[in-house]
Design a protein that fits this description.
By secondary structure, this protein is of the alpha/beta class. The chain is 35% helix and 12% strand. A hairpin with a 5-residue loop joins β5 and β6 (219-224). Bound molecules: 3-phosphoglyceric acid (3PG).
């Protein structure tokens, strides 16, 4: 039966600075690089040899995947990049400090923006420093100016259905190196997490999440490979 590993990128510079990042292309810190390599060692220890790695177009995810494959001795695994695996777009919060934003708007409001299912942050103003409209990575695409987890799932799911699910259904093992919220979207989809329960799902940086799937791509088992840095997982969905 197919196996899937979800790997959130290692600590980024803006994770360290506690800033809303979204689509801004910040790199890994040295700690983030070490997390990525450690993730690769754990993947090798688990005997996991993906047939393909999917990742986003953002450096922190791409480098995490590459470092993990390298340290797992799996440099030859083919890599497929797509912006639909990007982090959720943080709209007008992009670049702001999370703690300062909580002081200004209240911790409850910031939690709603960060963890609610369908409340997006305010939109990004066009033409500013973080407007990605002219970025060649998104040429010809209609891109958002903010995203909730719901609208993130709305662009992750068609990609999952068209490109990732068929590989798993064909019996291939798949690694996805991506982001906290694009991976929360995939967890919501696979585990059928109710809208009001996804608030409790956190995915740690650089800790591979192994999910065993049945032929219908229903999870039959799931575990973080670094048990010391694990977070609670949703219940396995009923058949
Ligand atoms: O984009 C970001 O700021 C983080 O990578 C994820 O942010 P979150 O923990 O606020 O969802």
């Amino acid at each position: 039966m197919p196996r899937l590993i979800l790997l959130r990128h290692g600590q980024s510079q803006w994770n360290l600075e506690n800033r809303f990042t979204g689509w801004v292309d910040v790199d890994l810190t040295a700690e983030g690089e070490a997390q990525a390599r450690r993730g690769g060692e754990l993947i090798a220890e688990a005997g996991f040899r993906p047939d393909v790695m999917f990742t986003s177009v953002l450096t922190r995810a791409k480098r995490t995947g590459a470092l993990a494959l390298d340290s797992a001795g799996l440099k030859d695994v083919p890599v497929v990049e797509d912006w639909r695996l990007n982090e959720r777009h943080y709209g007008g919060l992009t670049g702001l400090n999370k703690a300062e934003t909580a002081e200004k708007h209240g911790a409850d409001q910031v939690k709603i923006w960060r963890r609610s299912y369908d409340v997006p942050p305010p939109p990004l103003a066009a033409g500013g420093e973080y407007d990605f409209a002219a970025d060649p990575r998104y040429a010809g695409q209609t891109i958002p100016d903010t995203e909730s987890l719901k609208t993130t799932l709305d662009r992750v799911q068609p990609y999952w259905d068209a490109e990732i699910a068929p590989r798993l259904k064909a019996g291939e093992d798949v690694l996805i190196a991506a982001h906290g919220n694009s991976l929360r979207a995939i967890v919501k989809l696979l585990f059928r997490v109710p809208d009001d329960a996804i608030v409790g799902v956190e995915i740690p940086t650089g800790n591979p999440l192994e999910i065993d799937l049945d032929g219908e791509l229903r999870p039959t088992a799931a575990r973080y490979l670094d048990a010391d840095r694990a977070q609670p997982l949703p219940a396995l969905p009923e058949a």
